[in-house]
Amino acid sequence: MYFYTCYKIFVEFMVGKAAILANKKIIKNQVIFIFYKWGKNSQLDTNLFIYLIEKNRTYFPLVKSLFEKIQKGQLYGVTSSLVYTELLSKPFQEENIVLVNKYKVLLATFPNLIIKEVDKDIATLAAKLCAKYKIKTPDAIFIATGIAEKAQIFITNDTRLKIVNEISIIILDELLNQTDRVIID
User: How much is the average pLDDT of 99-118?
Assistant: First the structure.
């Protein structure tokens, strides 16, 4: 059953060769210029996984393209182990075991995705970020994880995090609104 679930999630991920996003066609082989411009290591916020698995109408084509690049090794994804807590809380609350399993399989099997445990160095750096920017602890942990893992960018949709200077913050909404940043093959 576990392998069938893995296969099913993989197939769901690969299906859907084109989509309409904000009146712009996003094709399967699109190049996301900004990700290449700023480096291959990308810290991923929890919302990207949600947009991918739940096929968010607005963000799915862009996030799918990003995860395809990670899957192929063209980019490398990094996230904190805290992603489990953030992803699984709501499905557990709603007793949605199917969604819980989708997230678990994605995190356990996705190639070129590093899930970093929160150690004392990351926790200390997160505390410094909380003190300096007055951001929430989970956000600080994600950012600290990216910094510790030498990620060049932190991809999120949380505009409040743009105040952080230690890593480049990429906001998905801003990517969608800047057509020069999304290149269509």
Answer: 97
